[in-house]
Each structure stands twice: as C-alpha cells, then as structure tokens.
Amino acid sequence: SEWPVIHGFGYGGGVGTEDWTVSQNRITNVTGEDITGIVLFNVNGVTLERNYVEHATSGVSGRRGHNLDGCSDLTMTDCYVDMGLRSPSNSNASFGAARYSLQLSMSDQSVSDVHVCNNTFQGGYDGVVTLGHGDISDVELVNNTFTDNVLVARPHAGTNGPPASVNRFTTEHNDIPDQVYGVFVDDGGSSGDPYTDFAANLNDRSGHSGAALLVQSGANVTDVIDAERNWWGDRNGPDGDVSDPDGLTSVKPWLRNQQAAGTVPGDGCLDD
Q1: Beta strands 63-67 and 36-40: pairing type?
Q2: Can you say whether the dihedral through the CA atoms of 221, 152, 12, 15 is positive or negative?
Q3: Distance between CA atoms of 167 and 111, rounded to whole angstroms?
Q4: pTM above 0.85, yes or no
Q5: pLDDT tens per residue across span 172-228
Q6: Whole-angstrom Cα distance, residue 267 to residue 31?
Q7: Which of 117, 155, 116, 114 lies closest to 134 in space, CA to CA?
Q8: Mean of the pLDDT values across residues 3-25?
Q9: Does an H or E element contain 251, and which?
Q10: Average pLDDT, stretch 71-86?
C-alpha cells in the first residue's frame, strides 16, 4: 500500500551504493498520503526498465511516481507512469493530488549522467522535476510521451539554496502536445540557479493551453537556450507558445510539419 521500492530515503549523503536494477514490476493501488512508488537515494548506476507504476488512487494526496535523489549513471527506459490526473488545470488541487512522475533531486546531492528514454508520463502536475539544490548535469529526456500533465519538465523548481547549477539538460524527440505548459525554466528564486547548455529540439509542442516553453523573468541563463527545430503546431512557427520576457531563447528555425518531430526509431537514447 505504500513505499513499494525504497532505498536510502531520508539519509541524504549517508548512503552510497552501486548498481541497482528495478525492472519489470507492476506497482498499483498505493494508498498512503505523500507516498512515492520507487525511491532510490545516492546510487551510482541505476537501471529502471519496463516498470508499470500506477499511483492514481482517487482521494489520495501527494502522489509521486519516482524520487531518485543524488543518483548518477541513471537510465530509465520503457516505463509507464500514471499519476491519475486527466485534463488537469494549473491549480492547487492538481498539485496537491499528484505531484511528480519523476523527481530527480530533493537535497544538495548532485545528479548526473541521466538518460530518460522511451517512457510514458501521464497525469502528474510535473512530468519531470528537480527540486534540490545540488548540481544537475548531463540529463537527457529523449523520445518520451507526456500526456495529461500540467508541466512537462521543470528543472530546479522552487527556491532551495544555496545556488546550484543546471548543465547540459536536453529534451529531444519527445511527444508533448496538449499539456497545460511545456518546459519551464525557473528563475531559481533567491538562489539564482544558473543554466548552461540547455537545449530543447525536435519535440512536438503543439496544442498547449499555456506556453509550451516558459522562461521565467530573471532566469540565470549563461548562454542562449536552444529551442530550435521544434513543431509548434503551425508551419509558421510559435505564436504565443513561448513566454520569454528577457529574450533568452532561440526558436528559429522551427519545424514546418509534425512528422519531423516526436518519436524516433531505435531506443531513443542519444549516444554518449
């Protein structure tokens, strides 16, 4: 009913293990409040593959799919995660019910070398989020499908300090139409987390009710955000699909047809 898979939660830097594989599991009917389906802390070498996590019990609040804090050399492939929201609004009710399908951090531990490929993330407030104040580096979200989420991806959400950094964060060939919002580049609050080498290319970003790319005013972006070669739902490019008051994003050239975006053959992971 709660904590189906858990290792190291609450111990911060006190746990350090290697080579965990969690594969071909079916997790359903999680009934505890503020419970996560799969929790792994501070593991070097994580493989998650072909897991089915349905944390969608109506009336259960604070639902979370995965919490992978302080992990490195992490691969998540061919998994299905459902947090239960359908056609959600950007509201406290949505956030209170189903938080995150995939949470990559929550402390000051660093997260690096993360490959998230060929998964489905459905029904969460955030599809992918990082909440901690440790450095985030070399994260790729490739060839995933996002449905019924408020936000697709939100690196360094919140105002946790001291300042950390987001380096080499890539979203590519993802099928992410019809969300409320797409990728959100947070300003990091008082910590002012800097973003370097942030790229979002070849995604299907059509049909969002809000902006498909939000770059918050005051975001500490050290170079131009590369949001070129995306499908924005019209061959004429984004029209209200990008919110970037400080002009930190490059969107040209854009794709002129939907078929060029979205899924790609093979395993979908970029070569190292």
Answers
A1: parallel
A2: negative
A3: 10
A4: yes
A5: 999 999 999 999 998 876 556 789 999 999 999 999 999 999 999 988 899 999 999
A6: 33
A7: 155
A8: 81
A9: none
A10: 97
* Type of residue numbered 66: H
Give CA–CA dist 170/205, Å, rounded.
15
| Tokens representing residue 200 in the block | 């979002």
Residue 82 in tokens: 């459902």
Query: In 10 A of CB 187, how many CB atoms?
Result: 18
Q: pLDDT tens across 33-47, in order?
A: 999 999 999 999 999
Predicted confidence (pLDDT) at residue 76 exceeds the cutoff of 90: yes
Half-sphere exposure of 127 (CA within 13 A, CB side): 29
Judge contact between 213 and 227, C-beta under 8 A. Answer: yes
At 144, list the tokens. Answer: 């995933």
The SS3 of residue 48 is strand
> What dihedral do alpha carbons 146, 74, 268, 187 form, nearest 10°?
50
Which sign, positive or negative, has the C-alpha torsion 34, 83, 136, 221?
Answer: negative
Structure tokens at 239: 């029209």
Rounded CA-CA distance 111/73 in Å is: 9
